[in-house]
Each structure stands twice: as C-alpha cells, then as structure tokens.
Amino acid sequence: MNPGGLRGFTERLGQRAAGGVEDFGYGALLLAESLYWLVLGRWWQQPVRLRAMANEMVEVGVMAIPVLSILSFANGAMMAMQGIYTLREFGAESQVITGLAVSVTREFGVLMAGIVVAGRSGSAIAARIGTMQMAQEIDALRVMGVAPVRYLVSPILVAFVVMMPLLTLLADSMAMLGGGLISMRELDISFATYLERVGSALTPADLWQGLVKSLVFGVLIAVVATTNGFNASKGAEGVGRATTRSVVLSISAIVVADMLFTFFLIL
Amino acid sequence: MTAMEAYPAASDEAIIEVEHVSAGYGAHRVLEDVSLQVRRGEIMVIMGGSGSGKSTLLRCLLGLHRPCNGMVRLYGRDIAALSGRQWTALRKKIGVAFQGGALFNSMSVGENVCLPLREHTRLAPNTMQIISRMKLEMVNLAGFEHLMPAQLSGGMLKRAALARALVMDPGLVFFDEPSAGLDPIVAADLDNLILRIREATEITLVVVTHELESAFKIADRITVLDRGRVLMTGSVAQVRDSTIPRLRNLLTRTAEQQPLDAEQYLRRLTGGTD
Amino acid sequence: MSFPVEKRQGFLVVMLAGEVDLSRSPEARKVIMKALKKMHSVMVDMSRVEYIDSSGVASLVEGFQYARSNNLEFALAGVSEAAMNVLRLARLDQVFPIYASLEARLEAGA
Q1: Is residue A14 part of a domain?
Q2: C92: chain B residues, CB-CB within 8 Å
Q3: CA A234: distance to chain centroid?
Q4: Cβ contact (<8 Å) for B130 and C29?
Q5: Does residue B152 belong to any structural domain of this protein?
Q6: Which of A167, B99, B179, C65 has a 20 to 30 A CA-CA distance from A81?
Q7: Domain for residue B224, yes or no?
C-alpha cells in the first residue's frame, strides 16, 4: 500500500473528517457534562469548588488585563487613524467617531478579547490538561472517584463565561480610549466632546451584541481547549500539537461564530 | 517467618474476580482470556515483562479500560454494571498508586495527599491535615508536605503517591511498579513499607511489577502474565519452582529466540514490497 | 448515637466503642474536646474499639495536642490490638500515654 497514492490520500482525508466529527462530539459531551456538574454537583455532594473557579478566573481574566489593554488601545488608535485618513477624502472625518464606537462595541472589542484569551488561556489549558493526561493525573482523579470534568472543566467554563464579558468591556473601553486620543488630536475636539459623540452614536443593542458574543466565544474557547487537552496523544510532542491545535481551532471557531452572528444579527 | 506462614489463609472471600477478560486497543489484542482472583488480605503480585499486558490488566481492574470480553468484579460487584454514583462510592474504598506517582503538579505534597479527604469527607480541616501528615509519616515523608511534586525524587514520588492512595483507609490498594526506576536500596525500602502496611492493616494489595526480586519478597501469590495470557498463578515457591519453559526464561531473564523465517525477515527489512 | 462519658475518681473517661470510622470520628472528636474543656484529666477507654481508622486516630491526636498545650492530662487505656496496630504504623504508640487498662491509671492516683 503506497501511502502517497490517491487511496492513501482519500483514506487520510476520511480519517481526518471522522476525527473532526469525533472531536466535535467529544466537545459537546464535555460541555454537557460540565454543565451537569455545575447544576447537580452540589446535590450529589460533588460540588464544583469555588476556589478552583476563582483561580481560573484570575488565570483567564485578571492575568489577561495588561496585554488586552495594550492591544485594544493600539487597535482603537489605529482604527481611528485609518478612519480619519479614509474619511478625510470625503470631508467626513468627524464621522469616524460613530464608526469607531459601533464597530468596536459590536465587533472588535469582543474579537480582541477572544483572540487574546484563546492565545493565552486556550493554549495553557490544553497544555495543562494534556500534560496531566500524560502523567496519569487524569486517571488518578478518576480512580479517586473525582470526575475529571467536574474538577477540571467546570471551573474553566465558569471562569470563561464570567470573564469574557468583563474582558470585552475592558477591550471596548481601551479601544475607545485609544481612538479618542487620536480623534482629539486630529479633529481638534475635547475629550468631553468625544465622549458625548460616542454616547450619542451607541445604543444599548450595540453593547449587548458584543456581550452576547463574548459569552459564546468564552464557551467555545473553553470547550476547544479542554477537548484538545483530553485528546492529546502521548508524549511531549502530542501535548505541543494539542496546544497549537487548541489555539488555531479556537480562534477559527471564534471568527466563524462571529461571522454567523454578524450575518444573522445585521441582516 | 515468611509471609505464607504469617497469613495462612487470607480469607477465601475474593475481593477481585477477573473472569475470562480479553481487552485491547482497536484491533490490537493485548489481553486474551485472563482469569484470576485476589482474596481479602493477600498481596497479589501481577508480574510480567513489558508488553505482557499487565498495565492493560491494571487499567481494566481500575475501570479505566473497558474489556471487550469477560467480567471484572470488585467487592463482588460487576464493575461494568455500576452507575456513576456507585462507582464513586466503590472508589472511596480503593487506593491507587500510579507508576510515576501521578501527583498533581500544581499542589504541594500535603495538598495532594489531602485531596481525597477534601473531596469525599466532611472532616474538619485540622483533622484532614493530621490524617495526611500521619500518612506521610507512614511512608517516611514526614516534613515534606510543603514541597511541590517537582522537587521530589522518583522514590519519594512513589511514596507520596502511596500516602495519597492510603489516605482514605482503603481496603484495596493497587500499586503500579513500586520499584521501577529506583535504585535497589530505595526499592527494597518500598517493599518493606508495603509489608509493614499490610501487617498493620487488613488491606488487600495488588502490586504490578516486572521486578522478580521485589515480587518474591512481598507476594503471597503471584500471577505471571505473558503475551496477554496468564502463564500461571501460584505462591512464591510454586512460581519459583515452576518448570514452564516460558516462565523459566522470564526467571532467568533470557529472551526466547524466535525461529527465523528468512523470507519474512527479508521482506520486513526491505519494507514489504515484493 | 454518641460516645458515653463517665466521671471516675477525678478523671473524665470517654468510652469509644465499635467502629470509629469516617462517619463517627467527628462525633468522637467533639466528645473528647468537650471532655477536655470540662476536666483536666481525660482518659479514653478504647477496650471496646473494634476498628479505628485514620480519622479516628486523628481525633485522638487533636485531643492530645489540645491537652498538651493547655497542660491537661490525656491518655489512652485498654487499647485493643487492632487499634494498636494502626497507632504503631503511624508510630503514635510512642507519642500517646497508653495504659494497659483504665484501672491501671486510676490506681496510680493523681
């Protein structure tokens, strides 16, 4: 059997597809089981620990604050500069504030937060769970009668669902701040005027759109990262691959979900 | 005084019953029709070289791997038929020390040992701490509770894992490869520890190992696995005096020469293109 | 179902019995601590203990620790072989004051 032949290719393609479906199913099961523990764990006297949730929140949310702030600030500033440059040709550069406010709150704030969290925590979680799998720590949990999903996945899920909206709000404000500084200089307005214009440009629906997305993104990143961690193949190489896969897949999932959202919310 | 004399009849009640278990990964069969019984209070050593299937057998016994055939009963209950909650209840009575320790890297040794208590009991925190320190004392790791697993040597990791396995006072303890990768003195220490624990408590121990010396020292009975099958089950003396050729090879550590098929060998070397 | 406590010649005697395991050791702990707060000499009669697990032993340790730091007397009496084995494994037989029986301590006087 020549592995390079057409048959080998279709075979591998088939395996890949089957693997993808399998991963998807696994992820769905993980999500269902971690929700089960969150809701019913206390009932069975197997609660999801508050301390574990708090730790994950610090890890996922608080630690992401510096890098997310800087990136969002820079991104907001760049968008303002590009906007002013483009709109100036039409003499409509003051419209940049409206565009900035709407696109940041609806789209870019949550996207920045998602990408930063996927890059930071998605990889770290996949690596952590993959390493635990390799060192038989997951088996150890299981034989102790501690469900690995309750112990490892549920706190992560909660942390993502709580922190993603907060991080999104942070990214929104930092991007608006960055855009504001540029606008103040280029349009020669005061910060108060800038804020006033932002306020009149935004509706609550704009903010909601971003926040709802952030919840979905949070769940997606959590599920993709943990799924890849649990399915990491043996060896350091396997964990490395799971980490990379986790980042690539969760960012892809975010972008695709974002596109679907925008499509259905705007049209 | 040998172990056999001290424990003439570990009660006949079987804690573990394995009946005609076959298991494998995908199409690859690793265990073929394995049956054995472990009685209450005995130390059963499951022995075999690498690839003999002993790790897979252990995973089947722990419910981490589902056999494709046959039945495993722990404390008289078919583990395939247990609900999640029944499993959890049963697992509180079972301790497992994994080969590499499998301690949680993000927690100190003390927190690791304490974990089963925290998850399964409502004891006062102070009581839990005292219990886990007692267990660490038992395995000669007193004073190491604040270290992180990464700071421990291989032998210490195994002892810490044993302390964690013992923390719920289980009636049944599995110990995977206690002496693998340790120097002889540390390994002998661990063997003594195992014997000491059994002497003091009514514990049933299943030890998986490929080390003959350790097996002969601690076992009441030995099950020898070879290429996925049970070669024999018997007392230390019975195994030592056995005349089964494969077993003699294992005991004298000589690899059996497979008769060479020149044709096939050549094909293997050239990558199978004919 | 609590463990009975009895006053005898200036001692408060806590009588542990049966299986002192995970489910009953919190009770044992409570009784022992209460006894220590009431009187400055407490004996634990263990002659009728059929089984004691680590949590039971830990309760004894806690009692002893409390007694030591408050200059009280705390001792075990009539420790059954099964319980003794558990104490020995944790080398606690060398830590607790242990008397062969309750009477052995009572006869010695204060």
Answers
A1: yes
A2: 134
A3: 27
A4: no
A5: yes
A6: A167
A7: no
Q: Which residues of A touch B115 (CB under 8 A)?
A: 144, 146
CB contact under 8 A, B102 and A145: no
The greatest distance separating any two alpha carbons of chain C, rounded to the nearest whole angstrom, comes to 35
**Would you say residue B74 lies in a domain?**
no
> How many domains does chain B contain in total?
1
Mark out chain A residues that contact chain B at CB-CB < 8 A: 44, 46, 131-132, 135-137, 139-140, 142-147
What interface predicted TM-score (ipTM) does this complex get? 0.88
Which residues of chain A have a pLDDT value below 70? 1-4, 267
- Is residue A3 packed enough to be buried (19+ CB in 10 Å), middle (13-18) or exposed (0-12)? exposed
Number of domains observed in the structure of chain A:
1
Q: Is the pLDDT of residue B255 over 60?
A: no
Place of tokens 């799924």: A227
CB contact under 8 A, C91 and B169: no
Give the confidence band of B104 by pLDDT, cuts at 50, 70, 90: very high
The identity of residue B11, as a single letter, is S
Domain that holds residue B142: 104-169
Contacts of C54 in chain B (CB under 8 A): 131, 134-135, 167, 169
Residue C98 lies in domain: 5-103
Chain A with chain B: Cβ pairs closer than 8 A: 55
Q: In this complex, does chain C touch chain B, defined as having at least 3 beta-carbon pairs under 8 Å apart?
A: yes
Residue C109, in any domain of the structure: no
Tens of pLDDT, residues B133-164: 999 988 889 889 999 999 999 889 999 999 99
Grade residue C76 by pLDDT with cuts at 50, 70 and 90: very high
Total number of domains in chain C:
1
Contact B134 C88 (CB under 8 A): no
Q: Is there a domain that residue B16 lies in?
A: no
Instruction: Examine residue A1 and state whether it is found in any structural domain, yes or no.
Output: no
Reported confidence tier of residue B8, pLDDT bands at 50, 70, 90: very low
Q: Which among A44, A140, A147 has the least Cβ separation from residue B102?
A: A140
Query: What are the residue ranges of helices labelled H in chain A?
Result: 6-40, 50-60, 65-88, 96-103, 109-117, 123-134, 137-143, 148, 154-187, 191-201, 204-230, 235-266
| Interface of chain B toward chain C, CB-CB under 8 angstroms | 121-124, 126-128, 130-131, 134-135, 137-138, 167-169, 196-197, 199-201
Instruction: Please tell me whether residue B122 adopts helix, strand or coil conformation.
Output: coil
In the complex, which subunits touch C with 3 or more CB pairs below 8 angstroms? B
* Domain contains C110: no
Residue C65 domain-assigned (yes or no): yes
B46 forms beta bridges with B208, B223
Q: Which domain holds residue A153?
A: 6-266
Residue B116's closest chain A neighbor by CA?
Answer: A144
Indicate which CATH number applies to the domain containing C12. Answer: 3.30.750.24
pLDDT of residue A4: 58
Average pLDDT over residues C48-56: 90
The dihedral through the CA atoms of B255, B260, B264, B268 has a sign that is positive
Taking an 8 Å cut-off on Cβ atoms, the answer to whether B196 and C54 are in contact is: no
Burial class (CB in 10 A: 0-12, 13-18, 19+), C5: middle
**For B72-98, what is each residue's pLDDT tens digit?**
999 999 999 999 889 999 999 999 999
Sole residue written with tokens 């804690």: B15
Answer yes or no: is A108 within a domain: yes
Is there a domain that residue C78 lies in? yes
- Sort out which chain B residues have CB atoms less than 8 A from C59's CB and list them: 127
Q: A251 lies in a domain?
A: yes
What residue type is A68 in one-letter code?
L
